[in-house]
Amino acid sequence: MPDIAVQILNSAKKHGIALIELSPFERDQIRNLLLLKYAPHLSQWPTWIWEHFPDRETLISTDGWKLIAEYCPSAEVVLLFSVTDEVRVFCVPSGQDAVAILNDCYSFEVYYSDRDASYLLVHNHHDCVIACGLAKDWLQTRK
Asked: Which residues neighbour 136 within 8 Å (Cβ) at sequence distance 6 or greater?
């Protein structure tokens, strides 16, 4: 199986989606901000950060990775992954673009946010969608 970054880049190219890879500084900055906001008791990003969110909403959905297109259809989305799977972080123009890209990829754990970390949506390997921040109340309405 190709690594996640290769899958993401190939799919974005196929769909003509302008993808931005964050610099290591920007990548670390967004990860640290997400950690501070949603798992403040941790000092570093663990393999399964979603296990450490004290204030979250959860929904079981095999297609949960597609929900970003509903939550954030036209605004930029930051794509992150489990740090043990892929350290690179990408920005895509919209949630709809994120779904188009991921539709071509093998299944893997994906994290969605914005550059301000105002929300965090996760689709994990258990088919759980986990929402924090502004996305938490939105996900509650999906139940």
From this structure: 55, 56, 57, 119
User: Cα torsion for 93, 130, 117, 4, to the nearest 10°?
Assistant: -50
Q: Are 65 and 96 in contact (CB under 8 A)?
A: no
Q: Which residue has the tokens 């399964």?
A: 48
Answer whether residue 71 shows pLDDT above 50. Answer: yes
Cα–Cα distance, 27 to 142 (Å, whole number): 30
For β-strands 90-92 and 119-123, DSSP reports them as unpaired
pLDDT of residue 142: 86
Burial class (CB in 10 A: 0-12, 13-18, 19+), 122: buried
pLDDT digits over 104-120, tens only? Answer: 998 899 999 999 999 99
Note the maximum CA span of the chain: 41
Evaluate if residue 1 carries a pLDDT over 80: no
71 Cβ neighbours under 8 A, 6+ residues apart: 95, 112, 119, 121, 135, 138
Retrieve residue 50's tokens. 């979603």
Rounded to whole angstroms, how far apart are CA atoms 39 and 36?
Answer: 6
Q: Are 117 and 37 in contact (CB under 8 A)?
A: yes
